[in-house]
Write a structure and sequence with these properties.
Blueprint lengths: L9 H4 L1 H11 L1 H4 L4 H15 L3 H14 L4 H13 L3 H14 L4 H14 L3 H14 L4 H13 L3 H13 L6 H10 L10 H16 L3 H13 L3 H14 L4 H13 L3 H14 L4 H13 L3 H15 L3 H20 L3 H21 L4 H19 L12 H11 L4 H8 L2
Length: 419
């Protein structure tokens, strides 16, 4: 067995405090112990506080000699054995403390700590930390240590949740792991975790230390954007751009913040700058397309989505949206009495709804909208309405398919246009 001594990191983990709280939690029971046993235990505590673990073991053992069912003494002696690297004795004492007092939160925590750092039994450590939390739901240290194992073993969702609880219940958590989670796993985060705030604090400290680092401003801006602090995110992106004027990603992210503030023109300008700097920036084309569509610039939006497909590959949702944009253009032309332009754009709309269906033949909305587009074409070209609708183009077939697949609009269309 590895008998290297486990270091005590008081500043970051508070393990000493976790150990010392035993006598506080059990103060009432402790006061019922006979005077000689109490004296031995208190001497053990004094040596433990001075990190004289060998001496503390002697006195805890004397206390146990006086009172063989003294769970606190077993638990504290276990900690002393743990910090001197005598793991077999430590595990025996933790086990005995738990046997004597099955609800002993501190014993489970200490045994988990031993399994994690001494025995490298991470699964066993998680079990013990979890039991400690079950017994004391506000045990910040147990959350912190379990979260660290989750983080190191790739369970980032578990790590986020545990770090958040550790922070909430008063444990001084390491900022760097939280920063790394925040930067790499945005999709897992929700504001309730407060991990983003830790990331901002970490980055702010690094900015102060390193002075004017564009990458740090950029990352801090991304986190602020995640927190919906869009104006301050833009400020950070601007600071980053001052030092790094040709970074497409910074412009793109500033565009995201502007989009969220409904500064659509400003967002389009930033997406355009990002594309100028990186011609194959597919997501910038995508975002610029939807910003343009918000301004009813459907023609230009379509061109951007086609660029997105060129660089990113086919996607049913993109084809569907191109179909919608063509439909909107066609309807505007029809309302302006430009039937030739309307017919051309309705036909383009049908083409792109069909492309979406070719990727997913259960795409209910695409069937429904293709049916509506075909109906408009039939009306403009042949004057067909209900009663004389010639379904050679499959208008009703599309409505039926959409209805079959669950498009709630389709039944109304069937009743309105199809016999």
């Amino acid at each position: 067995m590895n008998n290297s001594i486990i270091p005590i990191n008081k500043e970051q983990f508070g393990i000493r405090h976790a150990s010392n709280k035993i006598s506080f939690i059990n103060k009432i029971l402790f006061n019922l112990i006979d005077k000689e046993t109490k004296l031995c235990f208190e001497k053990g505590e004094q040596h433990f506080d001075n990190e004289e673990f060998g001496e503390s073991i002697i006195w805890y053992s004397k206390a146990i000699g006086h009172k063989s069912n003294f769970a606190m003494a077993y638990c504290k002696r276990a900690y002393a054995y743990l910090f001197t690297g005598v793991y077999s004795a430590a595990i025996n004492d933790f086990n005995k403390a738990i046997e004597l007092k099955p609800e002993y939160n501190d014993a489970y925590f200490g045994r988990g700590y031993l399994k994690e750092f001494g025995l490298k039994d991470f699964e066993g450590a998680i079990i013990d930390y979890t039991k400690a939390i079950e017994l004391e739901p506000k045990d910040a240290h147990a959350y912190m240590f379990r979260g660290k194992i989750y983080y190191n073993t790739g369970n980032l969702k578990g790590a986020i949740e545990d770090y958040a609880k550790a922070s909430k219940f008063g444990c001084g958590v390491e900022l760097k792991p939280l920063y790394e989670i925040a930067m790499s796993k945005f999709e897992l985060l929700t504001e309730e975790f407060h991990i983003e705030y830790c990331a901002i604090e970490y980055l702010s400290n690094e900015i102060i230390k390193q002075k004017n680092i564009a990458e740090l401003y950029f990352k801090r801006g991304k986190v602020k954007n995640k927190l919906k602090d869009y104006n301050n995110a833009i400020t950070d992106f601007c600071l980053a751009i001052e030092q790094k004027k040709n970074d497409a990603e910074i412009y793109f992210n500033r565009g995201l913040s502007k989009d969220n503030l409904e500064d659509t023109v400003g967002a389009i300008n930033d997406y355009s700058k990002a594309i100028e700097l990186k011609n194959d920036y597919s997501i910038a084309y995508n975002n610029r397309a939807y910003s343009k569509s918000a301004l009813k610039d459907f023609e230009s939006a379509i061109e951007d989505l086609k660029k997105y497909i060129q660089f990113n590959g086919e996607e049913k949702a993109i084809y569907y949206d191109i179909g919608l944009f063509y439909y909107n253009i066609a309807t505007n032309e029809y309302n302006s009495k430009n039937n030739d332009e309307a017919i051309f754009n309705y036909k383009q709309s049908v083409i792109y709804f069909t492309k979406a269906i070719e990727i997913d033949n259960c795409y209910a909305k695409a069937f429904g909208n293709r049916g509506q587009t075909k109906r408009m074409l039939a009306y403009i070209t042949n004057g067909e309405t209900k009663g004389n609708l010639n379904d050679n183009d499959g208008v009703c077939a599309d409505f039926n398919k959409a209805h079959e697949l669950g498009d709630n609009r389709a039944l109304g269309w069937l009743n309105q246009w199809c016999d």
